[in-house]
């Protein structure tokens, strides 16, 4: 199944839903992540994509979690066009 993002508006309420399985698997493959890092990276990239879906023009959104545990930082950038990238330190 292809990844997709669905937007809906009803009675002044906006709803966004995303299927990002292929996106997350590609991030895991490129970064050769362990399971915990894979989950953190996938969730952060998906969250950034959902937040960026509401941006206008050529804006970019960055989500960054600073941790003091085994992962350290988790960062994801996303655009309203659906481009997203991320990494785990």
TrEMBL record:
Q: Which GO terms describe its molecular function?
A: protein folding chaperone; unfolded protein binding
The record's Gene3D superfamilies line, in alphabetical order, gives: Hsp33 domain
What superkingdom does the record give?
Bacteria
Q: Name one GO cellular component term.
A: cytoplasm
Q: Which GO terms describe its biological process?
A: protein refolding
| Coiled-coil zones | none
Q: Which InterPro entries match?
A: Heat_shock_Hsp33, Heat_shock_Hsp33_N
Pfam family for this entry, one: HSP33
PANTHER family documented for this protein: 33 KDA CHAPERONIN
Q: What is this protein called?
A: Hsp33 family molecular chaperone HslO
Source organism per entry reads Megamonas hypermegale
Specify the taxonomic lineage. Answer: Bacteria, Bacillati, Bacillota, Negativicutes, Selenomonadales
């Amino acid at each position: 199944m292809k990844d997709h993002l669905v937007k809906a508006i009803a009675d002044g309420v906006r709803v966004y839903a995303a299927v990002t399985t292929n996106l997350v698997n590609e991030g895991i493959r490129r970064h050769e992540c362990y399971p915990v890092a894979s989950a953190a990276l996938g969730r952060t990239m998906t969250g950034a994509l959902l937040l960026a879906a509401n941006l206008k023009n050529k804006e970019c959104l960055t989500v960054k979690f600073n941790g003091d545990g085994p992962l350290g930082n988790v960062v994801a950038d996303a655009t309203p066009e659906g481009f997203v990238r991320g990494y785990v330190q």
